Amino acid sequence: MKTELLMGNEAIALGAIRAGVNVVCGYPGTPSTEVLETIAKRRDSDIYVEWSVNEKVAMEVAAGASYTGARALVTMKQVGLNVASDPLMSLAYIGVKGGMVVLVADDPGPISSQTEQDTRHFARFAHLPVFDPSTPEEAYTMIGEAFDLSEKYGTPVIFRPTTQVCHACASVEIDDKRYVNKIEGFVKDSKWVIFPKLSYQNHLKINALEEKISKDFAKSSYNQITGSGSKGVVASGISYTFVKEALLGAAAKVKVLKLATPHPFPDELALEFLEGLDEVLVAEELDPVIEENLLRLCGKAGLKVKITGKLTGDMPVAGKHSYEVVAAALEKTLGLQSAIAVSPGEAPPLPVRPPVLCAGCPHRASFYSVKQALKQTKYKAVFTGDIGCYTLGNAQPLDMVDTCLCMGAGITIAQGLKIAEPNSKHIAFIGDSTFFHTGIPGIINAVYNENDITVIILDNSTTAMTGHQPHPGTGKTMMGNITEKISIEKVLKGCNVGYVVKANPLKLAEAVNAVAKAVDYKGVSAVIFESPCIALFKGSDIQEVKENCVGCQTCICELGCPAMSIQGGKVTIDQNLCNGCKLCVQVCPVQAIGGHEA
Fold this sequence. Notes:
The protein is α/β, with parallel strands linked by helices. A 6-stranded parallel sheet has the order 3-2-4-5-7-6, sandwiched between helices. The chain has a 5-stranded mixed sheet with strand order 9-11-10-12-13, with helices on both faces. Strands 14-15-16-18-17 form a 5-stranded parallel sheet, with helices on both faces. The longest helix has 23 residues, at 196-218. The protein starts with a strand and ends with a strand.
Protein backbone atom coordinates (compact mmCIF):
# COMPACT_ATOMS: atom_id res chain seq x y z
CA MET A 1 0.00 0.00 0.00
CA LYS A 2 1.17 3.53 -0.75
CA THR A 3 -0.43 6.96 -0.50
CA GLU A 4 -0.76 9.31 -3.46
CA LEU A 5 -2.24 12.79 -3.79
CA LEU A 6 -4.83 12.26 -6.53
CA MET A 7 -7.55 14.12 -8.33
CA GLY A 8 -10.90 12.34 -8.02
CA ASN A 9 -10.79 11.27 -11.66
CA GLU A 10 -7.29 9.85 -11.16
CA ALA A 11 -8.49 7.92 -8.12
CA ILE A 12 -11.37 6.46 -10.15
CA ALA A 13 -8.95 5.47 -12.91
CA LEU A 14 -6.57 3.70 -10.53
CA GLY A 15 -9.54 2.06 -8.84
CA ALA A 16 -10.65 0.68 -12.20
CA ILE A 17 -7.14 -0.64 -12.91
CA ARG A 18 -7.11 -2.27 -9.45
CA ALA A 19 -10.50 -3.82 -10.24
CA GLY A 20 -9.07 -5.57 -13.30
CA VAL A 21 -10.58 -3.47 -16.09
CA ASN A 22 -9.65 -4.81 -19.53
CA VAL A 23 -11.21 -2.37 -22.00
CA VAL A 24 -11.79 1.37 -21.57
CA CYS A 25 -13.69 3.48 -24.11
CA GLY A 26 -15.02 7.00 -23.99
CA TYR A 27 -15.36 10.43 -25.49
CA PRO A 28 -13.73 13.46 -23.85
CA GLY A 29 -16.02 15.72 -21.86
CA THR A 30 -15.36 17.79 -18.76
CA PRO A 31 -15.57 16.76 -15.91
CA SER A 32 -14.91 13.13 -16.91
CA THR A 33 -11.91 13.39 -19.26
CA GLU A 34 -9.04 12.65 -16.88
CA VAL A 35 -10.36 9.17 -16.00
CA LEU A 36 -9.55 7.66 -19.39
CA GLU A 37 -6.37 9.73 -19.76
CA THR A 38 -5.06 8.48 -16.41
CA ILE A 39 -5.78 4.85 -17.30
CA ALA A 40 -3.91 5.39 -20.58
CA LYS A 41 -0.88 6.68 -18.63
CA ARG A 42 -0.93 4.15 -15.79
CA ARG A 43 -2.28 1.05 -17.53
CA ASP A 44 -0.66 -2.35 -17.78
CA SER A 45 0.06 -3.58 -21.29
CA ASP A 46 -3.05 -5.80 -21.34
CA ILE A 47 -5.49 -2.90 -20.86
CA TYR A 48 -6.94 -1.50 -24.08
CA VAL A 49 -7.88 2.21 -24.15
CA GLU A 50 -9.54 4.28 -26.88
CA TRP A 51 -11.13 7.63 -27.48
CA SER A 52 -14.12 6.55 -29.54
CA VAL A 53 -15.66 8.87 -32.14
CA ASN A 54 -18.69 9.41 -29.89
CA GLU A 55 -20.33 8.07 -26.73
CA LYS A 56 -22.73 5.72 -28.55
CA VAL A 57 -19.81 4.02 -30.27
CA ALA A 58 -17.91 3.83 -26.96
CA MET A 59 -20.89 2.17 -25.26
CA GLU A 60 -21.24 -0.43 -28.00
CA VAL A 61 -17.51 -1.24 -28.16
CA ALA A 62 -17.48 -1.73 -24.40
CA ALA A 63 -20.61 -3.90 -24.59
CA GLY A 64 -18.97 -6.15 -27.17
CA ALA A 65 -15.95 -6.57 -24.91
CA SER A 66 -18.21 -7.32 -21.95
CA TYR A 67 -20.00 -10.05 -23.94
CA THR A 68 -16.71 -11.99 -23.86
CA GLY A 69 -16.33 -11.67 -20.09
CA ALA A 70 -13.92 -8.73 -20.20
CA ARG A 71 -14.37 -5.98 -17.63
CA ALA A 72 -15.23 -2.79 -19.52
CA LEU A 73 -15.42 0.86 -18.51
CA VAL A 74 -17.12 3.62 -20.53
CA THR A 75 -16.46 7.28 -19.68
CA MET A 76 -18.43 10.41 -20.60
CA LYS A 77 -20.12 13.49 -19.16
CA GLN A 78 -23.84 13.80 -18.58
CA VAL A 79 -24.73 15.12 -22.04
CA GLY A 80 -22.71 12.28 -23.54
CA LEU A 81 -25.17 9.83 -22.04
CA ASN A 82 -27.87 11.40 -24.23
CA VAL A 83 -25.86 10.24 -27.24
CA ALA A 84 -25.26 6.78 -25.72
CA SER A 85 -28.77 6.23 -24.37
CA ASP A 86 -29.97 4.03 -27.24
CA PRO A 87 -27.54 1.14 -26.64
CA LEU A 88 -27.68 1.64 -22.87
CA MET A 89 -31.45 1.15 -22.71
CA SER A 90 -31.18 -2.08 -24.70
CA LEU A 91 -28.19 -3.31 -22.68
CA ALA A 92 -30.35 -3.12 -19.56
CA TYR A 93 -32.62 -5.72 -21.21
CA ILE A 94 -29.95 -7.94 -22.80
CA GLY A 95 -27.49 -7.73 -19.92
CA VAL A 96 -23.72 -8.17 -19.87
CA LYS A 97 -21.23 -10.88 -18.98
CA GLY A 98 -18.05 -9.17 -17.79
CA GLY A 99 -18.48 -6.29 -15.41
CA MET A 100 -19.48 -3.15 -17.33
CA VAL A 101 -19.38 0.23 -15.60
CA VAL A 102 -20.71 3.35 -17.32
CA LEU A 103 -19.02 6.35 -15.73
CA VAL A 104 -21.15 9.46 -16.27
CA ALA A 105 -19.79 12.62 -14.66
CA ASP A 106 -22.56 15.09 -13.83
CA ASP A 107 -21.80 18.80 -13.87
CA PRO A 108 -23.82 20.77 -11.29
CA GLY A 109 -23.36 24.48 -11.85
CA PRO A 110 -23.06 23.82 -14.71
CA ILE A 111 -19.34 24.55 -14.89
CA SER A 112 -18.63 23.46 -18.45
CA SER A 113 -21.84 22.06 -19.91
CA GLN A 114 -24.93 23.09 -21.83
CA THR A 115 -27.26 21.29 -19.40
CA GLU A 116 -27.44 20.50 -15.69
CA GLN A 117 -29.13 17.12 -16.01
CA ASP A 118 -29.12 14.43 -13.32
CA THR A 119 -27.97 10.99 -14.48
CA ARG A 120 -29.86 9.28 -11.66
CA HIS A 121 -33.01 9.76 -13.74
CA PHE A 122 -31.41 7.72 -16.51
CA ALA A 123 -30.67 5.02 -13.95
CA ARG A 124 -34.33 4.85 -12.97
CA PHE A 125 -35.45 5.08 -16.59
CA ALA A 126 -33.14 2.26 -17.70
CA HIS A 127 -33.62 0.20 -14.48
CA LEU A 128 -29.89 0.28 -13.77
CA PRO A 129 -28.08 0.49 -10.43
CA VAL A 130 -26.12 3.65 -9.71
CA PHE A 131 -23.23 4.48 -7.36
CA ASP A 132 -22.71 8.06 -6.12
CA PRO A 133 -19.26 8.58 -4.50
CA SER A 134 -18.77 11.43 -2.01
CA THR A 135 -14.95 11.72 -2.02
CA PRO A 136 -12.01 10.70 -4.22
CA GLU A 137 -10.97 8.15 -1.57
CA GLU A 138 -14.39 6.53 -1.65
CA ALA A 139 -14.53 6.61 -5.44
CA TYR A 140 -11.25 4.65 -5.59
CA THR A 141 -12.71 1.62 -3.79
CA MET A 142 -16.33 2.06 -4.86
CA ILE A 143 -15.68 1.53 -8.57
CA GLY A 144 -14.44 -1.97 -7.77
CA GLU A 145 -17.77 -2.66 -6.04
CA ALA A 146 -19.52 -1.42 -9.19
CA PHE A 147 -17.69 -3.98 -11.33
CA ASP A 148 -18.49 -6.75 -8.84
CA LEU A 149 -22.20 -5.84 -8.75
CA SER A 150 -22.32 -5.70 -12.55
CA GLU A 151 -20.99 -9.24 -12.81
CA LYS A 152 -23.11 -10.56 -9.95
CA TYR A 153 -26.35 -9.50 -11.63
CA GLY A 154 -25.26 -9.38 -15.31
CA THR A 155 -26.22 -5.74 -15.72
CA PRO A 156 -24.44 -2.51 -16.64
CA VAL A 157 -23.85 -0.22 -13.63
CA ILE A 158 -23.81 3.57 -13.70
CA PHE A 159 -21.06 5.30 -11.72
CA ARG A 160 -21.98 8.95 -11.14
CA PRO A 161 -19.33 11.30 -9.73
CA THR A 162 -20.11 15.02 -9.89
CA THR A 163 -17.69 17.83 -10.75
CA GLN A 164 -16.54 18.50 -7.19
CA VAL A 165 -15.67 14.83 -6.67
CA CYS A 166 -14.05 14.50 -10.11
CA HIS A 167 -11.79 17.52 -9.62
CA ALA A 168 -11.20 17.46 -5.86
CA CYS A 169 -7.78 16.26 -4.67
CA ALA A 170 -7.14 13.92 -1.74
CA SER A 171 -4.51 11.59 -0.32
CA VAL A 172 -5.59 8.12 -1.42
CA GLU A 173 -4.16 4.80 -0.25
CA ILE A 174 -3.34 2.82 -3.37
CA ASP A 175 -3.35 -0.97 -3.43
CA ASP A 176 -0.90 -2.23 -6.06
CA LYS A 177 -2.59 -5.62 -6.17
CA ARG A 178 -4.71 -5.89 -9.30
CA TYR A 179 -7.67 -8.22 -9.69
CA VAL A 180 -6.94 -10.64 -12.53
CA ASN A 181 -10.03 -11.10 -14.63
CA LYS A 182 -10.25 -14.34 -16.61
CA ILE A 183 -11.88 -13.69 -19.98
CA GLU A 184 -13.86 -16.74 -21.06
CA GLY A 185 -14.58 -15.48 -24.57
CA PHE A 186 -17.82 -14.97 -26.47
CA VAL A 187 -20.25 -17.86 -26.15
CA LYS A 188 -22.97 -17.98 -28.78
CA ASP A 189 -26.41 -17.74 -27.21
CA SER A 190 -29.80 -16.47 -28.36
CA LYS A 191 -29.91 -14.15 -25.33
CA TRP A 192 -27.54 -11.73 -27.10
CA VAL A 193 -30.12 -11.08 -29.83
CA ILE A 194 -32.93 -8.78 -28.72
CA PHE A 195 -36.46 -9.65 -29.91
CA PRO A 196 -39.82 -8.26 -28.72
CA LYS A 197 -40.76 -11.48 -26.89
CA LEU A 198 -37.37 -11.61 -25.18
CA SER A 199 -37.66 -7.92 -24.27
CA TYR A 200 -40.99 -8.51 -22.55
CA GLN A 201 -39.60 -11.41 -20.54
CA ASN A 202 -36.46 -9.48 -19.65
CA HIS A 203 -38.48 -6.45 -18.56
CA LEU A 204 -40.14 -8.63 -15.94
CA LYS A 205 -36.72 -9.94 -14.87
CA ILE A 206 -35.33 -6.40 -14.63
CA ASN A 207 -38.08 -5.34 -12.22
CA ALA A 208 -37.41 -8.37 -10.04
CA LEU A 209 -33.68 -7.70 -10.23
CA GLU A 210 -34.15 -4.15 -8.96
CA GLU A 211 -35.78 -5.50 -5.81
CA LYS A 212 -32.80 -7.81 -5.19
CA ILE A 213 -30.28 -5.00 -5.74
CA SER A 214 -32.31 -2.73 -3.44
CA LYS A 215 -31.90 -5.30 -0.65
CA ASP A 216 -28.16 -5.57 -1.41
CA PHE A 217 -27.80 -1.80 -1.28
CA ALA A 218 -29.57 -1.72 2.10
CA LYS A 219 -26.62 -3.74 3.45
CA SER A 220 -23.87 -1.87 1.56
CA SER A 221 -20.99 -0.61 3.66
CA TYR A 222 -21.07 2.62 1.67
CA ASN A 223 -24.49 3.43 3.16
CA GLN A 224 -24.30 4.38 6.83
CA ILE A 225 -26.61 5.59 9.61
CA THR A 226 -24.94 7.64 12.33
CA GLY A 227 -26.10 9.81 15.25
CA SER A 228 -29.53 9.88 16.88
CA GLY A 229 -32.38 12.22 17.74
CA SER A 230 -35.70 13.30 16.29
CA LYS A 231 -34.21 15.24 13.40
CA GLY A 232 -32.39 13.70 10.47
CA VAL A 233 -30.35 14.43 7.36
CA VAL A 234 -30.04 12.30 4.25
CA ALA A 235 -27.14 13.16 1.96
CA SER A 236 -25.42 11.70 -1.08
CA GLY A 237 -22.34 12.43 -3.15
CA ILE A 238 -20.37 15.58 -2.41
CA SER A 239 -23.34 16.89 -0.40
CA TYR A 240 -22.59 14.30 2.29
CA THR A 241 -19.06 15.68 2.63
CA PHE A 242 -20.49 19.16 3.22
CA VAL A 243 -23.03 17.81 5.75
CA LYS A 244 -20.25 16.02 7.60
CA GLU A 245 -18.21 19.24 7.79
CA ALA A 246 -21.20 21.37 8.84
CA LEU A 247 -22.12 18.97 11.65
CA LEU A 248 -18.67 18.84 13.25
CA GLY A 249 -19.26 18.81 16.99
CA ALA A 250 -23.02 18.43 16.55
CA ALA A 251 -23.20 15.08 14.72
CA ALA A 252 -24.49 13.20 17.77
CA LYS A 253 -27.54 15.50 17.97
CA VAL A 254 -28.86 14.53 14.55
CA LYS A 255 -29.41 11.25 12.74
CA VAL A 256 -27.58 11.11 9.42
CA LEU A 257 -28.05 8.68 6.54
CA LYS A 258 -25.22 8.64 4.03
CA LEU A 259 -26.72 7.23 0.84
CA ALA A 260 -24.16 6.24 -1.79
CA THR A 261 -26.50 4.02 -3.85
CA PRO A 262 -29.55 6.11 -4.79
CA HIS A 263 -31.00 3.58 -7.26
CA PRO A 264 -32.48 1.05 -6.80
CA PHE A 265 -33.50 2.86 -3.64
CA PRO A 266 -32.64 0.86 -0.47
CA ASP A 267 -36.12 0.96 1.08
CA GLU A 268 -35.26 -1.25 4.07
CA LEU A 269 -32.37 0.97 5.13
CA ALA A 270 -34.36 4.17 4.59
CA LEU A 271 -37.25 2.87 6.73
CA GLU A 272 -34.81 1.97 9.48
CA PHE A 273 -33.43 5.51 9.32
CA LEU A 274 -36.87 7.19 9.36
CA GLU A 275 -37.96 5.38 12.50
CA GLY A 276 -38.42 7.86 15.38
CA LEU A 277 -37.81 10.97 13.26
CA ASP A 278 -40.19 13.91 12.88
CA GLU A 279 -38.22 15.98 10.33
CA VAL A 280 -35.60 15.17 7.66
CA LEU A 281 -33.52 17.44 5.40
CA VAL A 282 -32.31 15.95 2.11
CA ALA A 283 -29.05 17.23 0.59
CA GLU A 284 -28.40 15.99 -2.95
CA GLU A 285 -27.17 17.24 -6.31
CA LEU A 286 -29.05 17.86 -8.65
CA ASP A 287 -32.72 16.81 -8.61
CA PRO A 288 -34.93 15.61 -5.70
CA VAL A 289 -34.44 11.90 -6.49
CA ILE A 290 -33.82 10.80 -2.88
CA GLU A 291 -36.35 13.31 -1.56
CA GLU A 292 -39.11 11.87 -3.77
CA ASN A 293 -38.25 8.33 -2.70
CA LEU A 294 -38.49 9.30 0.97
CA LEU A 295 -41.89 10.89 0.37
CA ARG A 296 -43.00 7.70 -1.40
CA LEU A 297 -41.83 5.57 1.54
CA CYS A 298 -43.51 7.81 4.12
CA GLY A 299 -46.78 7.59 2.22
CA LYS A 300 -46.50 3.86 1.74
CA ALA A 301 -45.63 3.17 5.38
CA GLY A 302 -47.94 5.83 6.84
CA LEU A 303 -45.06 7.69 8.51
CA LYS A 304 -45.67 11.28 9.66
CA VAL A 305 -42.20 12.62 8.91
CA LYS A 306 -41.70 16.08 7.44
CA ILE A 307 -39.35 15.78 4.44
CA THR A 308 -37.63 19.02 3.40
CA GLY A 309 -35.29 19.75 0.53
CA LYS A 310 -35.64 20.96 -3.02
CA LEU A 311 -39.39 20.36 -3.25
CA THR A 312 -40.02 22.57 -0.21
CA GLY A 313 -37.61 25.29 -1.32
CA ASP A 314 -35.18 24.61 1.54
CA MET A 315 -32.38 23.49 -0.82
CA PRO A 316 -31.54 25.15 -4.16
CA VAL A 317 -33.22 23.52 -7.15
CA ALA A 318 -30.28 24.27 -9.46
CA GLY A 319 -26.53 24.71 -9.21
CA LYS A 320 -23.83 22.93 -7.28
CA HIS A 321 -23.79 22.55 -3.50
CA SER A 322 -21.20 24.09 -1.20
CA TYR A 323 -20.44 24.05 2.49
CA GLU A 324 -22.21 27.39 2.86
CA VAL A 325 -25.38 26.17 1.10
CA VAL A 326 -25.63 23.03 3.22
CA ALA A 327 -24.78 24.79 6.51
CA ALA A 328 -27.43 27.45 5.87
CA ALA A 329 -30.07 24.79 5.11
CA LEU A 330 -29.24 22.83 8.27
CA GLU A 331 -29.65 25.95 10.40
CA LYS A 332 -32.84 27.07 8.66
CA THR A 333 -34.70 23.75 8.67
CA LEU A 334 -33.33 21.85 11.65
CA GLY A 335 -31.97 24.70 13.78
CA LEU A 336 -28.49 23.18 13.73
CA GLN A 337 -25.70 25.73 14.10
CA SER A 338 -22.65 24.94 11.98
CA ALA A 339 -19.45 24.27 13.89
CA ILE A 340 -17.46 26.25 11.30
CA ALA A 341 -18.32 29.92 11.08
CA VAL A 342 -19.24 31.15 7.62
CA SER A 343 -18.26 34.76 6.99
CA PRO A 344 -19.50 35.77 3.55
CA GLY A 345 -18.17 38.99 2.12
CA GLU A 346 -14.68 38.85 3.64
CA ALA A 347 -12.97 38.22 0.30
CA PRO A 348 -13.06 41.01 -2.30
CA PRO A 349 -15.28 40.34 -5.34
CA LEU A 350 -13.46 38.71 -8.21
CA PRO A 351 -13.22 40.66 -11.47
CA VAL A 352 -15.62 39.53 -14.20
CA ARG A 353 -13.68 37.70 -16.88
CA PRO A 354 -15.93 36.50 -19.69
CA PRO A 355 -14.52 33.56 -21.67
CA VAL A 356 -12.85 34.56 -24.93
CA LEU A 357 -11.02 32.87 -27.77
CA CYS A 358 -7.28 32.76 -27.05
CA ALA A 359 -4.98 35.35 -28.58
CA GLY A 360 -3.97 33.98 -31.97
CA CYS A 361 -6.75 31.36 -32.05
CA PRO A 362 -7.36 30.40 -35.70
CA HIS A 363 -11.10 30.25 -35.01
CA ARG A 364 -11.13 34.06 -34.65
CA ALA A 365 -9.66 34.35 -38.14
CA SER A 366 -12.17 31.82 -39.50
CA PHE A 367 -15.15 33.70 -38.08
CA TYR A 368 -13.77 37.03 -39.28
CA SER A 369 -13.19 35.79 -42.84
CA VAL A 370 -16.75 34.41 -43.04
CA LYS A 371 -18.05 37.72 -41.73
CA GLN A 372 -16.11 39.66 -44.38
CA ALA A 373 -17.17 37.29 -47.17
CA LEU A 374 -20.84 37.70 -46.28
CA LYS A 375 -20.43 41.49 -46.21
CA GLN A 376 -19.10 41.33 -49.77
CA THR A 377 -21.88 39.09 -51.04
CA LYS A 378 -24.52 41.11 -49.14
CA TYR A 379 -26.57 37.99 -48.42
CA LYS A 380 -28.81 37.86 -45.36
CA ALA A 381 -27.23 35.07 -43.33
CA VAL A 382 -27.80 33.00 -40.20
CA PHE A 383 -24.80 31.38 -38.51
CA THR A 384 -25.42 28.10 -36.67
CA GLY A 385 -22.81 27.05 -34.14
CA ASP A 386 -21.82 23.94 -32.26
CA ILE A 387 -20.18 22.72 -29.04
CA GLY A 388 -16.50 23.57 -28.68
CA CYS A 389 -14.12 26.48 -28.20
CA TYR A 390 -15.70 28.06 -31.25
CA THR A 391 -19.00 28.56 -29.41
CA LEU A 392 -17.20 31.68 -28.15
CA GLY A 393 -17.66 33.10 -31.65
CA ASN A 394 -21.02 34.32 -30.35
CA ALA A 395 -19.32 37.10 -28.37
CA GLN A 396 -18.74 40.64 -29.59
CA PRO A 397 -17.17 41.88 -31.73
CA LEU A 398 -17.35 38.68 -33.86
CA ASP A 399 -21.05 37.94 -33.17
CA MET A 400 -20.98 34.92 -35.48
CA VAL A 401 -22.89 32.20 -33.60
CA ASP A 402 -26.66 32.64 -33.72
CA THR A 403 -27.61 29.15 -32.47
CA CYS A 404 -25.94 26.41 -30.43
CA LEU A 405 -27.92 23.33 -29.37
CA CYS A 406 -25.74 20.23 -29.00
CA MET A 407 -22.87 18.43 -30.70
CA GLY A 408 -23.38 18.11 -34.44
CA ALA A 409 -26.63 20.09 -34.44
CA GLY A 410 -25.21 23.16 -36.18
CA ILE A 411 -25.32 21.38 -39.54
CA THR A 412 -28.86 20.05 -39.10
CA ILE A 413 -30.30 23.22 -37.51
CA ALA A 414 -29.05 25.09 -40.59
CA GLN A 415 -31.04 22.70 -42.78
CA GLY A 416 -34.26 23.32 -40.87
CA LEU A 417 -33.70 27.08 -41.04
CA LYS A 418 -33.08 26.88 -44.80
CA ILE A 419 -36.31 24.97 -45.38
CA ALA A 420 -38.30 27.61 -43.49
CA GLU A 421 -36.29 30.61 -44.80
CA PRO A 422 -35.17 29.69 -48.33
CA ASN A 423 -34.10 33.23 -49.24
CA SER A 424 -31.42 33.42 -46.53
CA LYS A 425 -27.96 31.91 -46.53
CA HIS A 426 -27.25 29.44 -43.74
CA ILE A 427 -23.69 28.82 -42.62
CA ALA A 428 -22.92 26.08 -40.08
CA PHE A 429 -19.72 25.99 -38.03
CA ILE A 430 -18.34 22.71 -36.66
CA GLY A 431 -14.98 21.61 -35.24
CA ASP A 432 -12.88 18.72 -36.52
CA SER A 433 -13.50 16.43 -33.54
CA THR A 434 -17.23 17.23 -33.51
CA PHE A 435 -17.36 16.56 -37.26
CA PHE A 436 -16.33 12.97 -36.57
CA HIS A 437 -18.54 12.79 -33.45
CA THR A 438 -21.95 13.64 -34.93
CA GLY A 439 -21.36 15.90 -37.92
CA ILE A 440 -21.23 13.32 -40.70
CA PRO A 441 -24.91 12.18 -40.52
CA GLY A 442 -26.00 15.82 -40.87
CA ILE A 443 -23.82 16.22 -43.96
CA ILE A 444 -25.33 13.11 -45.52
CA ASN A 445 -28.84 14.32 -44.67
CA ALA A 446 -28.21 17.69 -46.35
CA VAL A 447 -26.86 16.08 -49.53
CA TYR A 448 -29.61 13.44 -49.67
CA ASN A 449 -32.40 15.99 -49.19
CA GLU A 450 -30.84 18.53 -51.60
CA ASN A 451 -30.45 21.27 -49.03
CA ASP A 452 -28.52 24.45 -49.72
CA ILE A 453 -26.15 25.19 -46.84
CA THR A 454 -22.48 25.99 -46.35
CA VAL A 455 -20.55 24.10 -43.69
CA ILE A 456 -17.40 25.65 -42.21
CA ILE A 457 -15.17 23.00 -40.61
CA LEU A 458 -12.74 24.52 -38.10
CA ASP A 459 -9.89 22.01 -38.23
CA ASN A 460 -7.36 22.87 -35.51
CA SER A 461 -5.92 19.32 -35.34
CA THR A 462 -7.19 18.45 -31.86
CA THR A 463 -10.13 18.21 -29.46
CA ALA A 464 -9.19 21.53 -27.92
CA MET A 465 -11.95 22.36 -25.44
CA THR A 466 -11.50 19.25 -23.29
CA GLY A 467 -7.71 19.25 -23.18
CA HIS A 468 -6.31 18.39 -26.64
CA GLN A 469 -7.27 14.76 -27.03
CA PRO A 470 -6.63 13.00 -30.37
CA HIS A 471 -9.41 12.12 -32.80
CA PRO A 472 -9.63 10.23 -36.13
CA GLY A 473 -8.25 13.22 -38.04
CA THR A 474 -5.03 13.46 -35.99
CA GLY A 475 -3.46 10.10 -36.83
CA LYS A 476 -2.88 9.14 -33.19
CA THR A 477 -4.67 6.81 -30.79
CA MET A 478 -4.80 6.68 -26.98
CA MET A 479 -2.80 3.46 -27.15
CA GLY A 480 0.09 5.59 -28.43
CA ASN A 481 -0.08 4.21 -31.96
CA ILE A 482 0.35 6.22 -35.14
CA THR A 483 -2.58 5.42 -37.39
CA GLU A 484 -3.87 6.63 -40.72
CA LYS A 485 -5.47 10.07 -40.58
CA ILE A 486 -9.07 10.18 -41.69
CA SER A 487 -9.29 12.98 -44.26
CA ILE A 488 -12.19 15.35 -43.66
CA GLU A 489 -11.96 16.43 -47.30
CA LYS A 490 -12.28 12.85 -48.57
CA VAL A 491 -15.17 12.15 -46.19
CA LEU A 492 -17.01 15.21 -47.51
CA LYS A 493 -16.38 14.24 -51.11
CA GLY A 494 -17.37 10.67 -50.33
CA CYS A 495 -20.68 12.04 -49.06
CA ASN A 496 -21.09 13.80 -52.45
CA VAL A 497 -20.73 17.33 -51.09
CA GLY A 498 -20.76 19.39 -54.28
CA TYR A 499 -18.13 22.01 -53.43
CA VAL A 500 -15.24 21.42 -51.02
CA VAL A 501 -12.31 23.77 -50.55
CA LYS A 502 -9.47 24.00 -48.02
CA ALA A 503 -8.00 27.30 -46.82
CA ASN A 504 -5.74 28.79 -44.17
CA PRO A 505 -7.91 31.16 -42.09
CA LEU A 506 -4.84 33.21 -41.11
CA LYS A 507 -4.41 34.22 -44.77
CA LEU A 508 -7.33 36.59 -44.81
CA ALA A 509 -7.75 37.29 -48.53
CA GLU A 510 -7.48 33.57 -49.39
CA ALA A 511 -9.97 32.65 -46.66
CA VAL A 512 -12.53 35.32 -47.64
CA ASN A 513 -12.35 34.23 -51.29
CA ALA A 514 -12.87 30.55 -50.36
CA VAL A 515 -15.95 31.36 -48.28
CA ALA A 516 -17.45 33.66 -50.93
CA LYS A 517 -17.24 30.91 -53.57
CA ALA A 518 -18.67 28.30 -51.22
CA VAL A 519 -21.62 30.50 -50.25
CA ASP A 520 -22.37 31.22 -53.93
CA TYR A 521 -22.55 27.49 -54.69
CA LYS A 522 -26.09 26.11 -55.04
CA GLY A 523 -26.29 23.00 -52.86
CA VAL A 524 -24.17 21.66 -50.03
CA SER A 525 -20.75 23.32 -49.89
CA ALA A 526 -17.93 23.13 -47.37
CA VAL A 527 -14.86 25.13 -46.40
CA ILE A 528 -12.20 23.35 -44.34
CA PHE A 529 -10.19 25.93 -42.41
CA GLU A 530 -6.92 24.25 -41.45
CA SER A 531 -4.77 25.88 -38.77
CA PRO A 532 -3.51 24.20 -35.58
CA CYS A 533 -4.59 25.20 -32.07
CA ILE A 534 -2.13 27.71 -30.59
CA ALA A 535 -1.84 25.62 -27.43
CA LEU A 536 -0.15 22.95 -29.55
CA PHE A 537 2.01 25.17 -31.76
CA LYS A 538 3.15 28.48 -30.31
CA GLY A 539 4.05 31.06 -32.95
CA SER A 540 7.29 33.01 -32.79
CA ASP A 541 6.55 36.02 -35.01
CA ILE A 542 5.30 38.28 -32.20
CA GLN A 543 3.58 41.48 -33.32
CA GLU A 544 4.09 45.01 -32.05
CA VAL A 545 2.49 48.38 -32.79
CA LYS A 546 4.52 50.96 -34.70
CA GLU A 547 4.64 54.71 -34.10
CA ASN A 548 2.31 55.44 -37.02
CA CYS A 549 -0.69 53.93 -35.13
CA VAL A 550 -3.51 56.50 -35.38
CA GLY A 551 -5.53 55.00 -32.55
CA CYS A 552 -8.50 54.15 -34.79
CA GLN A 553 -8.93 50.88 -32.83
CA THR A 554 -10.07 48.99 -35.95
CA CYS A 555 -8.01 45.96 -34.91
CA ILE A 556 -9.62 45.83 -31.46
CA CYS A 557 -13.17 46.55 -32.62
CA GLU A 558 -13.02 44.04 -35.48
CA LEU A 559 -11.19 41.15 -33.82
CA GLY A 560 -11.53 41.40 -30.03
CA CYS A 561 -8.12 39.77 -29.49
CA PRO A 562 -7.26 39.65 -25.75
CA ALA A 563 -3.62 40.52 -26.52
CA MET A 564 -4.65 44.00 -27.67
CA SER A 565 -5.57 47.00 -25.55
CA ILE A 566 -5.50 50.82 -25.56
CA GLN A 567 -2.83 52.78 -23.71
CA GLY A 568 -2.38 56.50 -24.10
CA GLY A 569 -4.82 56.64 -26.99
CA LYS A 570 -2.93 54.05 -29.03
CA VAL A 571 -3.13 50.28 -29.42
CA THR A 572 -0.62 48.12 -27.60
CA ILE A 573 0.02 44.38 -27.91
CA ASP A 574 0.85 42.21 -24.92
CA GLN A 575 4.01 40.38 -25.98
CA ASN A 576 3.27 37.54 -23.55
CA LEU A 577 -0.12 36.83 -25.11
CA CYS A 578 0.55 37.44 -28.79
CA ASN A 579 0.93 34.28 -30.85
CA GLY A 580 2.01 35.92 -34.07
CA CYS A 581 -1.07 34.96 -36.10
CA LYS A 582 -0.77 38.27 -38.06
CA LEU A 583 -4.52 38.67 -38.45
CA CYS A 584 -4.27 42.15 -36.93
CA VAL A 585 -1.56 43.03 -39.47
CA GLN A 586 -4.01 42.26 -42.29
CA VAL A 587 -6.83 44.22 -40.65
CA CYS A 588 -4.94 47.42 -39.70
CA PRO A 589 -5.90 50.15 -42.22
CA VAL A 590 -2.61 52.09 -41.80
CA GLN A 591 -0.14 49.17 -41.65
CA ALA A 592 0.89 50.10 -38.13
CA ILE A 593 1.49 46.56 -36.89
CA GLY A 594 4.64 44.54 -37.58
CA GLY A 595 6.39 41.46 -36.27
CA HIS A 596 9.62 40.33 -34.70
CA GLU A 597 10.99 36.96 -33.62
CA ALA A 598 10.19 36.09 -29.99
